[in-house]
Amino acid sequence: MDVPNLTDRQDRDDKLNIDHKNLKSSHNREQNFKQSVPKVLLVGYNGANNTGSEARLISIIKDVRAVLGPDVCITIPTLNEKNLRRYIKEEANLKIVPIPSIFFFALKKLVKEHDLVLLVEGSCYMDTWTSALLWAFLWTTKCANSSKIPCIAYSVDAGDLSPLNKFLVKREASKTDLIITRTKLAADKLKNIGVTAPIKNTADSAFTFQKDDNDETIIQDIWTKESLPKPEKSVVGFAVVDFYLWPVVIRPWGKSKDRYKWPYYFSRSKKRAKKSDDLSARWAALADKIIEKHGKSIALICMEELDEPLALNIIGKMQHSENAHIFTSNEFNTSQMTGILQGLELLITSRYHAAVLSLESPVPQIAVAHDPRLKGLYNELGIDKEYLFDYRLENAGKIVWDKVEKQADDLLGNPKKINNKLKQGYSQHLMGAEKNRQLLKEFLIERGWEVRP
């Protein structure tokens, strides 16, 4: 007879004890939850004066309250508390919690204090803006998984990733209890990477955002207030992004003008600065041609305050700058920015949420894209072949701007050309966005949570 290995037996007993403790801990959490108000943590790009993130957050808070009731306790962590308070009012059951730039310990602590974690940033699984943001979401998922706390990626996107980040997404995102993507393209990207978590495809939460009716005439009021030529023939909007600021990288030190928030710095160099200046010149030339050929005014729309330097540079290079005005998220809230977007005759955008928030009107639009997000949306709208131009594939050359100008001329001459596609697309995406709430409800019911009927 073989003699049992006492060390193996001890290891097995220790493992059983650990598993029992985890099971007991999870059971106690469920019991405590049933006896108290649930606590929900919303982790995203909160407080950045970003119109899209603002629209998403407001809509998601409404979703959570619709499913779990008005008394649900919501916590929103942020790197910029002051900005977040501009559009989120702290209440007894809604807390804003500042976290440091080195976020690992703070997020881990917050996760353990909550019953449910939602990743609410649209640009969740991509490193276009910065790897640090991606790592924050993956770290949050890892902490939730380790603590047996349910975690949902709520109406998110997937995009460009380095080989290292693909590996990390495959490993950590697979630990998510449910991933809801806002486009089919995003869902396919995650599956192709090898993410094994359950994935559902719906639409962006911002589609359910509703502006205040009082903000509908804001663009006309601004033109009058600033003594600008009255835009009697309406306005063409440019939602611009400086592609050459990104990604934000981690450095122990750098130039103060390039610092986003220590230790994060914009990817600045002489070469990048030159390309940024060339980008401004291209936008300025397009604006002047539209003013000269069609008699339109130009609204430079900064969906994030970081877009303002590029917009100022564009106006500085325009020959007809008196016919242009900057509208920025630093000055206007999401309701007002949505009113501006929906009052346009034509939108030419590099910003995903400018496309989303203008769609209800529906405003004819053209995309000058620098990552896959607009590609996914335009593909579902059925307008990607004619009206989406990938700035990277065109090598930022004159050819892309010639094509954009041609399509702008076409849509200004025949604004109803894609009207039906935009209307149908908005209707479908609105239904998809409303499905997010239903998926959240079903997810919680399966786990024995009490939800509103």
UniProtKB/TrEMBL annotation:
Keywords: Transferase. Residues 50-372 form the Polysaccharide pyruvyl transferase domain. GO terms for molecular function: transferase activity. It comes from the Archaea. Signal peptide: none annotated. The keyword Transferase applies. InterPro entries: Polysacch_pyruvyl_Trfase. PANTHER family: COLANIC ACID BIOSYNTHESIS PROTEIN WCAK (PTHR36836:SF1). This is Polysaccharide pyruvyl transferase. It comes from Methanobacterium paludis (strain DSM 25820 / JCM 18151 / SWAN1).
